[in-house]
Design brief:
Layout lengths: L1 H11 L3 H27 L8 H19 L6 H20 L9 H7 L2 H24 L2 H5 L5 H34 L8 E6 L2 E6 H12 L1 H17 L2 H23 L17 H4 L10 H12 L3 H6 L1
Antiparallel strand pairs: 1-2
Helix pairs in contact: 1-8, 2-6, 2-8, 3-4, 5-8, 6-8, 6-10, 6-11, 8-10, 10-11
């Protein structure tokens, strides 16, 4: 089995397209770092002396809105969202932790999670072609004539796909750390992440949080890559596997969100259960609120990568 995996790995890196994918990721992160550095040079972050008053105002507004939702059962996840926001802001006030917009290595690594989706597309392409291309080129006969079961052949190819996806994930994490350290440096004070878990606010090591964050983001990508591998193995069609898998990758979550607006059984769909960050950071997973636009806009505003652009919005 190990020899089969090594053989598949060697064949994978004999392709020029594999190095093009890796190079695209690295160049993309360098470009993003250059843009962030330019934005930081254009406007230096200012210390907000009135951050306590602003947080107190935000908490009061959130409490008023939360009180209006207490009598409603259809806004359960929206209540959780505001409870989490209130708890985090109160913790900041009690422990004198001011929000900061300073760009550091860790904020850049966190923003680089956008490249995980690109890594997912590359993984899907590899998963869709690793079996179908063997039949297209006729090289599958050289594997089948060996005294090796087809199960082991397919399993070695699938493990190679998973290892390739994890390798891209590691590349994104390491190179974003390197670029972030070179361009922005380390924070002047100790950094940590505030997580909301079981009704309590927890301080977590920033490196541990980022590693967990990356792994959680990759779960749905590996699931769709598995689908692409399955379609490629069954139908032996590279185009069908790539097209269908990319369709699910880009529209699966949105379709699930729209179905959840009308049907309760939507919470059992795969795409509503691949985001496991809810178990680590207390973020509501499937939205029960019938205002889909509100959640979409909230997600965009609170997850847009750069604070300069976020303040502009």
């Amino acid at each position: 089995m190990v020899k089969l995996i090594i053989n598949e790995w060697v064949k994978l890196f004999k392709r020029t397209s594999t190095f093009v994918m890796i190079g695209f990721l690295i160049l993309g992160m360098i470009g993003m770092g250059a843009i962030y550095k330019y934005l930081d040079n254009q406007s230096s972050p200012e210390t907000n002396e009135n951050w306590q008053e602003e947080l107190e105002t935000t908490i009061a507004e959130d409490r008023e809105f939360l009180a209006e939702l207490q009598s409603s059962t259809s806004y359960g996840n929206l209540q959780t969202y505001y409870e989490r926001d209130i708890a985090l802001n109160e913790y900041r006030l009690q422990n004198n932790i001011a929000p900061t917009s300073e760009q550091t290595i860790w904020t850049f690594v966190n923003d680089a999670t956008s490249f995980i989706s690109i890594s997912g597309i590359f993984t899907i392409i590899i998963a869709a072609g690793i079996v179908a291309s063997e039949f297209t080129s006729g090289t599958i006969k050289f594997l089948l004539v060996r005294p090796i079961s087809r199960v082991k052949i397919l399993l070695s190819k699938y493990i190679t796909v998973i290892l390739f996806g994890l390798s891209l994930l590691i590349i994104v994490f390491l190179f974003s750390s390197l670029i972030g350290a070179l361009l922005f440096g380390f924070p002047s004070e100790e950094s940590f992440h505030l997580a909301y878990h079981s009704g309590e606010v927890i301080e977590r090591n920033i490196v541990f949080h980022l590693i967990t964050h990356y792994l959680l983001y990759s779960i749905d990508i590996l699931m769709i890559a598995t689908m692409a591998f399955m379609i490629s193995s069954v139908f032996r069609n590279n185009s069908l596997a790539i097209g269908f898998s990319l369709f699910l990758f880009f529209s699966g979550a949105a379709a699930t969100l729209l179905l959840a607006e009308q049907f309760d059984w939507a919470k059992y769909i795969l795409f509503s259960n691949t985001d496991l960050s809810v178990y680590f950071d207390g973020i509501p997973q499937l939205k029960d609120d019938d205002n889909v636009f509100y959640y979409s806009l909230t997600y965009i505003l609170f997850h847009f990568p750069h604070p300069r652009i976020h303040s502009f919005l």
